[in-house]
Amino acid sequence: MSIDYQTICSALYREARFLDDRQWDEWLACYTEDVIYWMPAWDDDDKLTDDPHSQISLMYYPDRGGLEDRVFRIKTERSGASMPEPRTSHNVTNVEVLAERDSEVDVRYNFNTLNHRYRITDQFFGTICVTFRKVDDRLLIARKTISLKNDYIRQVLDVYHV
After folding, report:
1. Other C-beta atoms within 10 Å of 6: how many?
2. Which residue, 1, 79, 110, 156, could crosslink 73 as a Cys pair with Cβ 3.0–4.6 Å?
3. SS3 of residue 77 by DSSP
């Protein structure tokens, strides 16, 4: 299977747009049911944790159900950390295809997200590795690992920050 670079970039840009436009259902539809969504933490030795089951993570959802719960809380105003909803701008750069298998492709890219809330603009940046899976004629995210490179985070992180 060969997936062209423009199709991969389009899928990444679409997911970012859905977050910026607060199109939560459309954003969820970018993910497979069995997606692993993980943001490891930095340990005391300045290395990312490597086991979400035995080490600290900034976010970890072992399937889409966790993401659906986050979206439910955001949409129903049951997330104090998300009220009022911030304005975001997601920027995707340096998209690189790392590997291709039967119906999957591994991609690495950098991100920079601006987040505005309460008259303050925060910036989040780092590297994301995703595995896209071709389902029917669409590319869906089957795994997403986020390496947030900020040293100081002054608020609770949520899915729209990255």
Report:
1. 8
2. 79
3. coil
Report the domain count for the chain.
1
- Spatial contact of 32 and 134, defined as CB atoms under 8 Å apart: no
The whole-number pLDDT of residue 99 equals: 96
The 10s digit of each residue's pLDDT in 39-93 is 999 998 899 999 999 999 999 999 999 999 989 988 886 555 555 678 899 999 9
**Tokens at residue 146, please?**
């986020």
* Tens digits of residue pLDDT in 130-151: 999 999 989 999 999 999 999 7
In this structure, what token pair is assigned to residue 16? 């970012």
The pairing of strands 31-40 and 104-117 is unpaired
Domain enclosing residue 124, as ranges: 5-161
